[in-house]
Amino acid sequence: MRSGADVETIHKLEILSDAAKYDASCSSSGSARPAVPGGLGNGAVGGICHTWAADGRCVSLLKVLLSNACLYDCAYCVNRRSNDVPRAGFEPEELVRLVIDFYKRNYIEGLFLSSGVTGCPDTTMERMIGVAKTLRTRERWNGYLHLKAIPGASPELVTEAARWADRVSVNIELPSAASLARVAPDKSPAAIFSVMRTLSRASGFEPRRLLSAQTDTTQNPRHSLPQIGGPTVPVPATSLAPGGASAWPGLPAVSFQAAEPAPAYNATTPPLDRQSVHEARKGRYRNPESAVLPAGQTTQLVVGASPESDAAILGLAENLYLAYDVRRVYYSAFVPAGTDPRVPALPGPPLLREHRLYQADWLFRFYGFRADEILSPDRPNLDVDLDPKCAWALRNLDRFPVDVNKAEYLELLRVPGIGPRSAVRIVKARQRSRLTPESLKSLGIVMKRAAFFINLRPRCIAGQRPPPAGTNPARPGLCLKHGMINILQMKRIRPQRQRDTEKMRKQKRKEKESDHGGTETRSSRERKRKRERE
User: Fold this and answer.
1) Which range of residues forms the domain containing residue 67?
2) pLDDT of amino acid 105
3) How far apart are CA 155 and CA 149, in angstroms?
4) For residues 11 and 452, what is the distance between their CA atoms, to the nearest angstrom?
5) Burial class, 397, CB count within 10 angstroms (exposed 0-12 / middle 13-18 / buried 19+)
């Protein structure tokens, strides 16, 4: 029989775990914190992923709040001060005992701990650090630990949290300071960015800022962005894209450096001319076995709670990657909860928009795109029907088709249907033999997408002319532009064709049944005739 204390703890757990489910930035990878000899559990670089939350998200941790009582009144948050929800809170010792008991029963392999602001930011941060420190020192727990930093907490407490946790994050929440002031009036940009700056420095990265008249030359080269050869082109903060990171006062202006309308793929081009998040990260060394913040920091943006465009969201995310070395930006579709006039009344969470933002974010983290290439002031939102990479390719048909036997790695990444692994395989395979459509399929290329953008030009034979520009030799007579238009049309025509095919099948079945005397089959009729003869 359960005691009264156990029942109360379970009731608190139900309330506080449900209140934490809207925070998407609870990743559990990138850490290999050295285990304390004789301790309990361990962290791993590959992360832990085996649990599904009630809202369908895959998590690996006990995702819980220390308390859902909050002094702030953020309109997008279900735990806001003005919302009438059940309130609860754990004592630090109570939560420590719960984590250890769950871990020993193999229920969890890590902890994601956040909290509403109770008292003041420093008081709340001290209570969360108390949980982390007790787990690490007294319980000798080596498991994965993710702490959520409270905006406005002192740098000393944020640095202390980085000592005990594998990852610390602070949510920037909204894409502009104006929306933050309207929707979350108790938070300020300075409070958020001061925490992010402290975390980036704790992990060995010095935030970089390019001023309009000069560049910052006081940084330690080992703790800054990669040194760029050639002349430095300072870019003022006012030169950013409309609605982009310039809407945030105090955010380092490092995005859109020397932006050009058509980036060159030539390896001899200075890196500054084609710098992206993907390129900037190549010179950034991270130590997953570091004693301080081995998994770095993350953040989260709420999508749909404010009127900013997708271009503003991606511009801000790119700046956070470059300026504060954020490991990942999470995009969380706004879930309407209540009738607060400060947020729009949506019929449901914009899940498709969230999905497109993740696809675009993937492009400038792993494919070498910049945010101003994916979207622009005249095209501020992502296409609903096409993924961002395919939409970019259709807007830049003059760059295609690409000769896969000669193109550089970054140029291959721009082709729809070719990813980082496929591009590496192409570069290696073409050193041994010339690539063919059949060999590309074996390398993992999605040919139904890539076929319209690549050129497998055969070797010229004497007396033959090369195929005309704009055609694809891999599929003779197929025009690049019209081929992609056909694909778009097929996406709309295919469902109708399927319905027509099913309708024709039903009609033929009925005709066949009528010809053979209704639903009676041939075998049944033969058996009937045999019985009549007997």
Assistant:
1) 1-169
2) 84
3) 11
4) 57
5) middle
If asked whether residues 182 and 163 sit together in one domain, one would say no
Upstream peptide bond of 401 is cis (omega within 30 degrees of 0): yes
Helix (H), strand (E), coil (C) string for 378-430: CECCCCCCCCHHHHHHHHCHHHCCEECCCCCHHHHHCCCCCCHHHHHHHHHHC
Quick check: is 218 in a domain?
Answer: no
CA distance 72 to 90: 19
Tens digits of per-residue pLDDT, 70-129?
Answer: 999 888 888 888 888 889 999 999 999 999 998 888 788 888 999 999 889 999 999 999
Same domain for 429 and 445, yes or no, is yes
Q: Are residues 89 and 161 in the same domain?
A: yes
Predicted pLDDT of residue 233 = 28
Q: How many helices (H) and strands (E) does the chain have?
A: 17, 10
501 in the same domain as 433: no
How many of the other CB atoms lie within 10 Å of CB of 101?
12
> Is residue 329 classed as helix, strand or coil in its secondary structure?
strand
Distance CA 251, CA 249 (A): 6
The pTM for the full model equals 0.73
With respect to residue 423, please indicate whether it lies within any of the assigned structural domains: yes
Q: Tokens at residue 305, please? A: 């709670």
CATH of the domain at 146: 3.30.750.210
Residue 372 resides in a domain: no
Tokens 């740098």 appear where? 155
Distance spanning both ends of the chain, measured CA to CA: 76
Residue of 413, 428, 470, 474 lying closest to 447 (CA atoms): 474
Domain count for the chain:
4
- Whether 413 and 397 map to the same domain: the answer is yes
Residue 502 falls inside a structural domain: yes
Residue count of the chain, please give it: 534
Sign of the C-alpha dihedral computed for residues 215, 221, 223 and 227 taken in this order: positive
Residues 161-213 have pLDDT tens digits of 999 998 999 988 888 888 898 999 888 888 999 999 999 888 888 765 433 33
Q: Show the CA angle centred on residue 54, arms to residues 334 and 345, nearest 5°.
A: 20
Domain end: 115, 137, 169, which one?
A: 169
Helix boundaries (H) for 105-232: 121-137, 155-164, 177-183, 189-202
Stretches in the chain below the pLDDT threshold 50: 1, 209-245, 253-274, 459-467, 469-483, 485, 490
Cβ neighbour number for residue 200 with a 10 Å cutoff: 22
* Whole-number pLDDT of residue 161: 93
User: For position 57, what pLDDT does the model report?
Assistant: 57
CA distance 307 to 353: 13
